[in-house]
Specification:
single chain, 214 residues, alpha+beta, Aminopeptidase, nine-stranded mixed sheet, two-stranded antiparallel sheet, 6 helices, 11 strands, 27% helix, globular, Acyl_CoA_acyltransferase, N-acetyltransferase domain-containing protein, GNAT_dom, acyltransferase activity, transferring groups other than amino-acyl groups
Length: 214
């Protein structure tokens, strides 16, 4: 299976947004907001266009990965710029074929060459622990509200990149989307059924609940 990885182009935006919608629909909640998130991310000053990649098969976009600049506010008072990964998306019919891994590996190598310190994300431990990430708690990194979270993962891009960065991870504000605007944006797409209580939704709720005081 020949998969091409290339930078996303402006003309790709509608197709990519549909890929993101298909990948996340009913996965973590009824419907999804991720396609609206990627739509507004691209216009943020924190967006990193050099790391905006699509996976293409037979002239069809089947996956996408994007990054924003965020920060770790260390307990020492110092601030460290890091990358936030996500959303990363693969069309359901192309999942479990290694496309997500290729997108992560490719952009991680580029990010390292660009001089970035580390990548952080909130996601499924069973997946990201097999992709070179470790629990952020092992490096003393907490959420913005000073909690340890099982969903929070980190990948240092060089040895000891975050050795002095014990502190709070502050995601870029773009991630705090306006749900009403996301619902309005979704009206541009073909209607899809909302499903409540799927196994992946229940799994997501359990992971999000795994938070502890630092």
């Amino acid at each position: 299976m020949e998969i091409e990885l290339r930078n996303e182009c402006f003309s790709d935006y509608p197709e990519t947004e549909n890929v993101v919608r298909e990948a996340f629909w009913n996965r973590y909640s009824p419907g999804c907001y991720e396609h609206y998130l990627i739509h507004i991310m691209r216009y943020s000053r924190a967006f990193v266009p050099q790391l905006d990649f699509v996976a293409v098969f037979d002239d069809k976009i089947v996956g996408n990965i994007v990054f924003l600049k965020s920060v770790i506010q260390a307990d020492t008072g110092k601030e460290y710029e890091v990358l936030s990964l996500g959303p990363i998306s693969v069309l359901p019919e192309y999942q479990n074929m290694g496309i997500g891994k290729r997108l992560i590996d490719h952009t991680r190598n580029l990010a390292k060459c660009m001089g970035f310190r580390a990548i952080l994300l909130c996601g499924e431990p069973d997946y990201y622990l097999r992709r070179g990430f470790v629990p952020a708690e092992t490096l003393g990194i907490r959420t913005a509200d000073d909690m340890y979270a099982d969903a929070l993962h980190v990948c240092e891009l060089y040895e000891n990149a975050l050795s002095d960065a014990r502190g709070r991870y502050i995601e870029n504000p773009v991630y705090n989307i306006d749900e009403s605007q996301a619902i309005e944006f979704d009206k541009k797409f073909e209607p899809k059924e909302l499903v409540v209580g799927t196994p992946s939704q229940k799994r997501f709720d359990r992971i999000v609940a795994m938070r502890r005081k630092a």
